[in-house]
Amino acid sequence: MAIIKTIRDKYAKLAGVVIGIALLGFVLMDFGSGGGGSSDTIAKVNGTKISYAQYENLIQQREQEVRMQNPSMSVSEVMRAQLRDQAWEDIINQELLGDLYSDLGITVSEAEINDLLYGSNPDPMVRQAFTNPETGTYDPQQVRQMVQQMENDPEQRDMWKQFQNEIVNRRYVEKLNTLIVGGVYMPTFFAQKQSAIEGTQSEGEVVMLPYSLVADSEVEISDKDLQDYIQKNAAFFTNKEELRSIEYVSFVTIPSSQDTIAALGNAQDLLEEFKNTTGSELTSFLALHESATSLPHSFFTQEQISTLDNGDAIWNASSNEVVGPFFEDDQIWMTKTTEKVTMPNSVTSQHIFVASEIQGNAIKSMEAAKSSIDSAIAQINAGVSFAEVAAAVSDDNLAEAGGKHTFSPQERGFLSDKFANALYNNPVNSKQVIEVNDGDMKGYYYLEVLEKGETVDTYHKIAFVNQSFDADKNTISDIYNAASTFMGRIQDGEDFRTVAQEMGKTVRTSNNIKRFSHLIPSVGASMELGRWTQDAKMGDHSSIIDVDDQFIIATLTDVQPKGLFKINESNKALITSYVMKDKKAAKLAEMYNSSSSLSDIASKTNQEVIPFEGVSFAQPFVPGIGQEPKAVGYASNVKHVGKLSPGIYGNNGVIYMNVSNATPGSSESANKQMMLQQMQQQYSNNALPTLTEQLNQKASIKDSRDKIYR
Q1: Residue 344: exposed, middle, or buried by beta-carbon count in 10 A (0-12, 13-18, 19+)?
Q2: For residue 196, is it within any domain?
C-alpha cells in the first residue's frame, strides 16, 4: 500500500492547490475566536500574567496555520492535542524571549511591518492568507484595501490585530536567531581535530566476556544501590516536569458480523447506481460518496494498482466495469475503470489561462477573455518572455512560475478534458489556443508543448468509492455492557490485572503523561482521561471513558515528580537491570584484570579471541562484538598500542583488547571544509533552542491550567 498512500498524499496536496483558500474571512476567523472572553490567569512567567484568552487564541492560530498549509486536511483530535501542547510551550517562550528582545535592543519598526505585509516579498503567512483563490496571484495593493476594510470593521479589527501580532512575533524570532547565529564561530582546528579522530584506524584482538557469565543469583542489589545509581546518572534520570503513568484496558467498538453484512448490503445498493453513472454525473456521485481516504478519479499504472489486495481484478476490468464491493484497509471499496490510454510519463509545457468564470464566479466575458489571450500571444511574438507575460496575464496558480510546469499522468485527471487532450496529444513545439467550458472553469488557454518524457506506459483512469462502516448502536451497547462488567468487578475490590486476564483483556501501559496534556501516549487524545490522570491518586480507577472508537478503564500506577526519578514498581525492574549489569561488570573485571594476555582470559572463560581491523570513530562498531563505543574509544588512542586493556564495561559484556596498531588520521582531510560547515550548521541550528531551554530552566513559571480545565 506504500505507493497508493504516496499517491493519496500527493493528490491531497494537489487538490489543495487547485481549490486554494476560499475567503480571507475564513482564513482569519479562527485568529479571533478563542478564549470565550475569559480573563482568568492561566500562567505567570517571571511575575507576568498570561490569560486564558491569550492561550486559547494561540491554539486557534496554530490550528489555522495547519489548515492554511494543508487546506484539504481536517485537524484530528490527536493533532489538536499536540497543537495545544505546542501552543503552551510557544506562549511561555514568547514571554521569556520578550524580555530578551528588550535587553538586546531588538525591535521591529513600522517600516518593517509594512514590508512584511505589503512588500514584494511578504511574510509567508501573509502570502498564504491573501493570495487570490480564483487567480492564484498575490497583489499588495489589494491587501492594503482588505486590511483597511478590516481595520474599519469592529468585528474584524481584533482578528486582524492578532494575525498581525503573529507576523511581528515571527520577525522578532528571526532577528534574535540571526543575532545568535552571527555570533557562532567554529574554529578550523575543531574540524581538524574531528577529522583526525574520525580518520584514526586501529587493529588488534579482542575478547568479550558476556554478562551472562555471572548468574543473577550471585549479585545482591539493595534499594540504596538503586538510589545511588540514579544519583550517579542524574542526567538520565531527571524529569523536567511531573510525569504520570497509567495501566488501562480497552473495549474497542469494532463492527460485529451483523454490522458487516448490513454494510455490504448498503454497498450492493450503491453498486447499481455506480454502474449506471457516467460523465459529469459520475463526478457528482464521487463527490457525494467521497471519504477522507478516497483515491482521486485519475490515471494509474498497473504497478500502482497492484499494491491493492484486489489490484489484478481492478486492472483487468474492462471500460466502465465496476469491481467490488470488496474489503481494503478495513473499508468497503468499489472501483470503476472509465478510460484506458497510453501516454508518456511526463509532459512539460508552458501555458497562459485567461478566465471568464471560475467555480461559478464571473471574471469577464468570453469575448474579453479571448481578446486578452490574443494580446498575450502578440506580446510573446513581439519578443516579450513567456514567463513575464504569464505572470502578468494568467489567472491560474502557475502564473508566478511563468506558466511552466511538468505534468505527471496522475495530474491529468484534474485537468480540463480539452486542455488535457491537447497537452498529451499535440506534438512537441506545438502551439494552440484552447477554449474550455467544462462547468468549473470557463475561458481560454494558450498552450505550448515543450517536452515529453521518453518512457511511455499504459494508464487506466479509475474511479474509487470507499466507505467506512462502524458498529451499530446495539453492538456498541453490548461492548459498553462488557466494560461495565469489568468496572463493577474492580469496584467490588477485585484486582485490576486479574479481572482483565479472566475477561480476556490485555493490560496496556501509557507512560510519561504530562500535566494538563490531552495527549495520552499509546491511547490518543482525550481531555477526560487527561484530567482524570492528573486528579487521580495511586491505585485509583477511572470511570468508563470514551476515547475515539474504544471504551477505556484506567488505573494510576506511577507519579514521577519533577527532579530525580522516584523508584517504584513501574521503574524498579529497569533500574535494577542497569545496576545488575554494573555489578556483574565489576565482578568480571575483578576476576580477570590481573590476567597477562587475551589468550589467558579466553581460556579461563571459554571465550574466543577475535581479530579486528579498520575500527574508527566514524563507525563505533567492533567486528565480532557489535556496537561498543567505549571499546572504539580505547582502540583509537595510539597510547594504548601494545598494551592489554583493563576491563572495559561495554553494552553486552566486559571487553579486553590488545591494540597492535593505530594509524592516526590526517587533520587535513579532503572533507575538512565540509565537516567545518556541518559543525557550524549544527551549532547554529541548536543555538536558539538551547537558549530557550536555558531561559525556561531559570524562569519562575507558575502553571495554573488546572483552574481552567476542570
Answers
A1: middle
A2: no
CB contact at 8 A, 603 and 656: no
E strand residue ranges, 479-525: 508-514, 519-520, 524-525
CA dihedral (276, 281, 282, 286) positive or negative: negative
SS3 202: strand
Domain count, the chain: 5
pLDDT tens per residue, range 90-134: 889 888 888 888 888 999 999 998 888 888 888 888 887 777 655
Among 86, 84, 89, 92, smallest CA distance to 526 is for 84
- 206 and 285 within one domain: no
Q: Are residues 373 and 502 in the same domain?
A: no
Q: Decide if 688 is inside a domain.
A: no
Residues 267-283: b if buried by 16+ CB within 10 A, e if exposed: beebbeebeebeeeebe
Could you report the per-residue pLDDT of 139-189, keeping only the tens digit for each?
Answer: 888 788 888 888 888 777 777 887 888 888 889 988 998 888 888 888 888
14 and 163 in a single domain? The answer is yes
Cell of 700: 519562575
pTM of the model: 0.60
Residues spanned by the domain of 395: 346-454
Q: Write down the residue that cell numbers 530525580 correspond to.
A: 564
Sign (positive or negative) of CA dihedral 568, 569, 574, 579: positive
- How far apart, in whole angstroms, are the C-alpha atoms of residue 474 and residue 634? 67
224, 291: one domain: no
User: Residue 526 phi/psi, 5° resolution?
Assistant: -155, 110
Indicate if the alpha-carbon torsion angle 597, 603, 607, 611 is positive or negative: positive
* Number of residues in the chain: 710
- Whole-Å CA distances, 302 to 311, 316, 453, 648: 8, 9, 18, 56
